[in-house]
Design a protein that fits this description.
Blueprint lengths: L1 H21 L2 H12 L8 H5 L1 H10 L7 E2 L2 E2 L1 H11 L13 H7 L5 H24 L20 H10 L3 H6 L6 H18 L22 H10 L16 H13 L10 H7 L3 H16 L8 E6 L4 E6 L3 E6 L12 E11 L2 E8 L12 E5 L10 E5 L3 E3 L5 E3 L7 H7 L4
Parallel strand pairs: 3-9
Antiparallel strand pairs: 1-2, 3-4, 4-5, 6-7, 6-9, 7-8, 10-11
């Protein structure tokens, strides 16, 4: 009796291990072949450049696949694939992560196919994580105007962490910069993508002829709908007629302020031109600026100077609660200045203004001359040497009160970045 019970216990403890090995060994053998033949390709430039690290990681697990078994993809592979397909929520293209190739292999039970699928999923998770951390367009692309040195991932550790994570979305979010301005912009992208897909965004015809206060215009009912969608007009006024009345003028002022226009309350040519931009183009503008937000790949210190050349505004931040906003006087001199991290080298008061020289940080900057960038602020401010500075070019942003702003592309950089991101 005791010997029979002992045999049952042995079988209970041995069977899971045996089935675990049997469930992976065919694909594991194919993975070894890929590495030995130097044919292992992950689809990720970052991972392929460090293929030795990838091999070393697989070797620690006896080359057992990370994402699949011999009978097909694991549930975590399906969850990862779903996240890759929804990477557009970050303004990224799912095609960057080889979703079509992955999809074609997801139903296969061929060990060779599954080995390739495991490689592609490992590569995709690395590429996606790197893009979230640094942005997709790095300092090697001159027309991007990005001089921020990428933060390199520990590729093996990242694959292992992603594979072990119970929730890949939460794991990946840890690689996004903690700036709430990024999260707010994601929410607005979702809104515009939804409005575009549902054909909710009104099509407004541009016109050089202004519509003055108390005048009527056949486009005003459609514009009312747009202003309700943008939050500039109360919803109960959506059907209030085709006359430019006081409430409509007040909504126009809000719209104009958010689009860097003169806040006149008049329906002029510039305002109609902004209103004529379709939702798809607005989505593209948001995507471009999510990419620029990702270039801010290192934490900002409690005290720092944040300069947005497109706004153009410098925000002097002291701790969590104290901020001073300053205009930029010498914008034309900054046309060739890229996004970069630096620090205040010198700052002096001059005729009621502040002249600050910012030295690029050699540890976090790539491709910039080793000389300070001179910026003239429109008021006096106390800037101590060594103060952290981040200089960027954000043409679309969401303020802390949830208002979406479209600034001026003063340096005409949006088109070049859209081409690099293949958004055209």
């Amino acid at each position: 009796m005791l010997s029979r019970l002992f045999l049952v216990l042995v079988l209970l403890t041995a069977c899971p291990a045996a089935s675990f090995a049997a469930g992976n060994e065919a694909v594991a053998a194919e993975i070894v072949k890929l590495f030995d033949s130097r044919a292992a390709e992950t689809g990720s430039q970052s991972a392929d450049k460090a293929i030795g690290e990838v091999r070393a990681y697989y070797a620690t697990r006896a080359f057992k696949p990370v994402w699949v078994r011999d009978d097909g993809p694991k549930s975590k592979a399906k969850a990862l694939f779903a996240e890759l397909r929804s990477s557009a929520v970050h303004g990224l293209s799912p095609q960057s992560y080889h979703v079509d190739q992955i999809a074609a292999l997801m139903d296969s039970q061929d060990p060779g196919d599954l080995a390739q699928l495991d490689m592609l999923l490992s590569g995709a998770v690395v590429e996606f994580g790197r893009d979230l951390r640094n942005g997709r367009i790095g300092p090697g692309k001159a027309s991007a105007e990005n001089a921020v040195t990428p933060v390199e991932l520990d590729i093996a550790a990242y694959i292992e962490g992603a594979a072990d994570a119970g929730n890949f979305r939460q794991y990946a979010s840890g690689f996004i910069n903690a700036d709430t301005r990024y999260v707010r912009l994601i929410a607005k992208l979702s809104e515009f993508q939804r409005m575009g897909a549902a054909h909710m965004w009104p099509q407004i015809a541009p016109s050089p002829a202004p519509v003055e206060k108390d005048a009527g215009d056949a486009r005003i009912p459609l514009i009312r709908k747009m202003l309700v969608l943008t939050g500039d007009l109360p919803a109960n006024l959506i059907g209030a007629g085709d006359v430019l009345d006081d409430e409509f003028a007040a909504a126009l002022v809000k719209f104009q302020a958010r689009h860097a226009l003169a806040a006149t309350g008049v329906l002029d040519a510039d305002t109609l031109g902004e209103m004529a931009i379709p939702a798809e183009q607005r989505s593209r503008q948001i995507q471009l600026n999510l990419e620029r937000r990702r270039w801010q790949n290192r934490p900002l210190q409690a005290d720092h100077l944040y300069i947005n050349m497109a706004e153009p505004v410098a925000r002097l931040v002291r701790g969590d609660s104290d901020s001073t906003f300053l205009g930029i006087e010498n914008l034309n001199e900054l046309r060739d200045v890229p996004t970069f991290f630096g620090s205040v080298e010198t700052a002096r008061a001059e005729a009621g203004k502040t002249v600050v020289e910012i030295r690029p940080d050699p540890q976090t900057t790539t491709g910039m001359p080793d000389k300070p960038v001179r910026i003239v602020l429109d008021a006096e401010a106390t800037l101590k040497p060594g103060l952290q500075v981040f200089v960027t070019y954000i043409t679309t942003w969401v303020s802390s009160d949830g208002q979406l702003h479209f600034g001026r592309d003063a340096f005409a950089r949006d088109a070049a970045l859209a081409t690099l991101m293949k958004l055209d």
